[in-house]
Amino acid sequence: MKIAIASDHRGYPTKQELIKYLSKKNYEVLDYGTNSTDMVDYPEYAFKLGESVANKKVDFGIVVCGTGIGISIACNKVKGVRCAKVDNIKEAELTRKDNDANVLALNGSMPLYRVKDIVDVFFNTNFTNVDRYINRINQIKEYENNNVTKKFEEKEVRNDA
User: Fold this and answer.
1) Which of 99, 62, 54 lies closest to 78 in space, CA to CA?
2) Exposed end of the chain (fewer CB within 10 Å): N or C?
3) Are strands 60-65 and 103-107 parallel, antiparallel or unpaired?
4) How confident is the model over 40-55, as pLDDT tens digits?
């Protein structure tokens, strides 16, 4: 399995530990930066990783920043990416089973043992292919492709009292 990984400066130490961990588990790991704890802006790294996932150059991605929130927001701007900010193994399992997430976002302050458990569950859980989940993912894809139906358009709000 080929894994892309990226972080900002606050996620860098966790990213480096994850690269070692994943390599020992025989995953092929592509590092999209950053390469130090010097302050950087996470969107650049999130977009690079997201493009590699969307273009199927890798099977999955992992992004890490101080909270996991900002980098996940940036990653989700890439068409075809379904990035989930995960804090525990239950969320890791469900985001794969129900949402077919292809990028995992992590908090760089989380203990490494917990990060490893989350990563293992994420990579070892398959999408369920249940119709209702497929339908929801297809709605997201449709929206991304600008095939938005009227029900998603903004409606005028009237305050007639």
Assistant:
1) 54
2) C
3) parallel
4) 999 999 999 999 999 9
CB neighbourhood size of 98 (10 A): 16
Q: Which 3-state string (H, E, C) describes the chain?
A: CEEEEEECCCCHHHHHHHHHHHHHCCCEEEECCCCCCCCCCHHHHHHHHHHHHHCCCCCEEEEEECCCHHHHHHHCCCCCCCEEECCCHHHHHHHHHHHCCCEEEEECCCCHHHHHHHHHHHHCCCCCCCHHHHHHHHHHHHHHCCCCCHHHCCCCCCCCC
How far from the centroid of its chain's Cα atoms is residue 34's Cα? 17
CA distances in angstroms from 108 to 47, 133, 148, listed in the order given: 18, 30, 36
Cβ neighbors of 60 (< 8 A, separation 6 or more) are 1, 3, 4, 53, 102, 103, 104, 122, 123
pLDDT tens string 59-83? 999 999 999 999 999 999 999 999 9
Whole-number Å distance between alpha carbons of 128 and 134: 9
Query: Which pLDDT value is given to residue 146?
Result: 79
Rounded-to-integer distance, Cα 106 and Cα 129, Å? 25
